[in-house]
Structure formats: C-alpha cells, structure tokens
Write a structure and sequence with these properties.
This protein is 28% helix and 39% strand. It is α+β, with helices and mostly antiparallel strands. The chain has two domains: 91 residues, Crispr-associated protein, domain 1 (Alpha-Beta Plaits, 2-Layer Sandwich); 128 residues, 2-Layer Sandwich (Alpha-Beta Plaits), CATH 3.30.70.1210. The strands form four sheets. Strands 5, 8, 11, 12 and 13 form a five-stranded antiparallel sheet that branches. The chain has a four-stranded antiparallel sheet with strand order 2-3-1-4. The protein is globular and about 50 Å long.
Amino acid sequence: MYLSRMLLNPQRRKTRFFLASPHAMHAAVMSCFPTPLDGVNRERVLWRIDQLGNRVVLYIVSPDRPSFEHLQEQAGWSAQSSWDTRPYGAALQRIENGQTFAFRVLVNPTHVVTKDGKKKRMGHETAEHQLRWLIDRSSQAGFSVVEQDGDPMIRVVRSDKISFRRGSGKVTLVRAGFDGVLRVEDATAFVRTLTQGIGRGKGYGCGLLTIAAVAASESAKAA
C-alpha cells in the first residue's frame, strides 16, 4: 500500500473543475495509475481533497504507486513537482491496540428512510446526526473517539451538499468532515479502515481516514 499527497494549484482552471466535480476528480485520480487496475484494486483506491484557504491537498491511499506527472500538468504547481508518495505498509504494521492518534476524515453520512412504502437513502445534514453517524460506526471500524470530561474529542470541520453531473444524470452528495482524537480498539479492523475506508461515496472522495501523532497538549487529555 502507498500513501500519497499532492498539492493542487487552486488558481488553475482544471483544479477548480475537479473541486466542483468529484466524478471528474475520481477519473483524474484513476489516471494516475499507468497500469489499469482490476476491479478489486480499483475499489481499494481511496482519495480525499483537503482545503484550507488557498491550500488544496489531494491524499490518495492505493495498492499501487501512482504517477502524478499528468495531473501535475493539469492542476499542479508548474514550477515544481508537488507530490510525495511513501510506502504505507510499515506504518500500518506498527498499529497497536491502545494507541491514540489525531485523525481527519470526510464521509458521506447516510441513512435509509421509508416513504409511501419505498426506501430511499438520504444524507444526514445536521452536525448532531453527522457526529452520531460516525461515532456509531467507530467500533466496527476498530476505534473509539477519545473523550475529555465526558465529551468526545471530535468536531465537524466541514459540512456541505454538492451536486454534479455524472454522464446524463446528476449526483447529489452530502459530505461531513471531522477532526478528532481516536484510540485504537481493534488493530486489525482499524488497519482495514485505513486501507478500505469508511462509509459510502468512496468513488467521490469520501471515506479516507488519515491519522497523525497527537499534539502534546491533546495527548495529555487523551491519557
């Protein structure tokens, strides 16, 4: 497995197009693999776009090493190579129960409603329901959200609904982004979450959970 990060240039027309269309962004991500992926490996490619002001970062977790030259020409910073790819396997092997990490994830929080006898999948649009959606799935995903004074150390940092074209149809996607602190409860399940994602909408940039060392102040709270 590989973990890649690429800086995109938000001033370029193609970058703005990708940001407005997760379907187009997914196609661009898949074009980074010179050898066509089979069905299984294609499903295992996870990606996410993080935006903070003018900083736009693409993250990819994939079974094969991507090649970003083409995407660099379309949406990167032309003066320099703006990507980094590292093997992910060694880091995954070091995951153990009881470890705490800062995490970030963008998900498509959905639920099924029944109306007039018909079932329909809808997106959760309130922060309360979005938080509950993630916390309810954390155990199966191999982690728990760390609490401080009885409150979970997690916050919604992004919530939106985006509509975009896919072929002749239109897709509407509800997204919620979270930052928080987690504790690994089941290392095997957690590694599976890191490599296979969480929830639906993975082809549209949802589901990729990334982790980092907890800052010293947060680590003390998590102890």
